[in-house]
Design brief:
By secondary structure, the protein is mostly beta strands. The protein has one helix and five strands. The strands form two sheets. Strands 3-4-5 form a three-stranded antiparallel beta sheet, with no helix packed on it. A two-stranded antiparallel sheet has the order 1-2. The radius of gyration is 18 Å and the shape is flat.
Length: 94
């Protein structure tokens, strides 16, 4: 337990896209594979809705010394027309 394989950058999922987070404690190897001996975290995203929605976020900050300014811009567009649904997320960091 405690080993991370195929780590995922959590910045790729906007908080506005998350419906719920499920934490399953204990061994779950039978359902999720041999590496799930410590538990599983399942992030369930929202289903796209009719019409379109968009979110834009601008973040900025600096480290404690003041010499490491960082900026981030991200956008999320999701929605659907008829039976087609989808979402698009993009982010850039400087």
């Amino acid at each position: 337990a405690g080993e991370v394989k195929n780590p995922y950058d959590m910045d790729r999922i906007s908080a506005s896209m998350i419906e719920r987070i499920e934490v399953v404690k204990g061994p779950m190897s039978a359902l999720y594979g041999a590496d799930a001996v410590g538990g599983v975290i399942n992030i369930v995203t929202k289903q796209p809705e009719d019409g379109f929605r968009a979110d834009v976020a601008v973040l900025g900050g600096a480290n404690a010394d003041g010499d490491g300014a960082n900026k981030q811009l991200s956008a999320n567009v999701r929605g659907g027309v008829g039976k087609f649904r989808g979402s698009f997320y993009a982010s850039t960091t400087d």
